[in-house]
Amino acid sequence: MTLKISPCLVLVLLIFTSAATSNSQVSPPVKPEAAQAEKTQSASDAEKQLDALNAEVFKYFNEGQYPRAMPLAERALDLGERTFGASDSRLVTPLVNLAELKLTVAKFREGDDAKMLLREAEALYRRAVTITEATVGKKDAQNSQIWLSLAQIYRLQKQERKVEEAFSRAIQVNESAFGTESLEVANAAYMLAEFHHSNKEPKKANPLYLRAIAIYDARLPEGDRTGEKAVERYECFLLESRGHDAIDEFRKKRPLNNSVSNEGIINGKAIHLPTPYYTQALRSQGLSGPIAVRVTISETGQVLSARAVCGNFDLIKLIKSAVFRARFTPTLKDGRPIKVTGIIIYNFEK
Fold first, then answer.
1. pLDDT, position 349
2. C-alpha–C-alpha distance, residues 320 and 295, integer Å
3. What are phi and psi of 349, to 5 degrees?
4. In which residue ranges of the chain is pLDDT below 70?
5. What is the predicted pLDDT for the residue at 73?
6. What is the pLDDT of residue 8?
7. In the chain, what are the domains?
8. Please, how many CA atoms are within 13 Å of residue 186, restricted to the half-sphere of its CB?
């Protein structure tokens, strides 16, 4: 017996089957509010993950575990780019972290490997600066540290003009962010002065040293090592560029330390000033020049402490025993002997 199906029934069955299939595959529409909430939650989770990765990178970097920190820094940057885009301010930290790692590792490498790492670090720092300037502004303090790091890179690459530019940008950022008389400005000015000093550019170095020292004198407590080091380096600069008379001239113009009198060059006040033994080996190497030693003299004229502040390192080693055997005429104030500081100059001639 043959079963006959009405055409109308076939049509109804087809419609019903089609509708059932369609209903089983299509989800109900998602409300825009729900979709936005899901997206926000996803971004929030990614940001927490990014913070955790950045913290791990920081930890391993401080421990000197650079091989462990490097892939984590790369992963953090990749996560930030995929989640927030290529220009989001949240990328600055992973960019700087990865750049710092590459710069640090480059210092232990040589040849093409070191050059490649420096180029990669520069690109990362430059990108971080661009993002910060676009999102926060050129006055953001973080940019100062980035410019100082770029100065390191350019110095390693021997790009002298770019070194000066990077230090100058750091000074400008610090002036805007912290004020023209801030310690941050003094630190950047001092570093640029040291750069010009090493390049034998006294006209550029001198005003920068003086600016840094003036700020340190005004802002740092008496005896702070940062300020003392800047003064010592400036005295070294004066000794090399103008001679020891320039040190005395500087000391006369600069306010004296209140607790310990600073006497400048004190060679002439010595009762006994032993001459360091100039070995034939060093003489044959052609090592020569002045050595400046900062000393503290007791009320009885004995050397209490000594610190070389200028000169060739190999020559400095020769003066250690000689300087503590020196004796000086006690300095009197209101008829009573006082403790003083000063500089002994040793000249090593070929």
1. 77
2. 11
3. -110, 145
4. 1-41, 255-260
5. 97
6. 42
7. 259-350 (3.30.2420.10)
8. 19
Strands 340-348 and 261-265: parallel
| Residue that has been written with the tokens 């960019």 in this structure | 95
For 238-282, what is each residue's pLDDT tens digit? 988 998 888 888 887 876 555 567 777 888 899 999 888 877 777
pLDDT at 252: 77
Question: How confident is the model at residue 280, as a pLDDT?
Answer: 77
Q: Which structure tokens are listed for 292? A: 């400046």
Q: Phi/psi of residue 143, each to 5°? A: -65, -30
Terminal-to-terminal C-alpha distance of the chain:
129
Cα angle, residue 8 at apex, residues 2 and 12 outer, rounded to 5°: 110
pLDDT tens figures, 20-41: 444 445 445 555 554 454 455 6
The predicted structure's pLDDT at residue 44? 87
What pLDDT is attached to residue 28?
A: 54
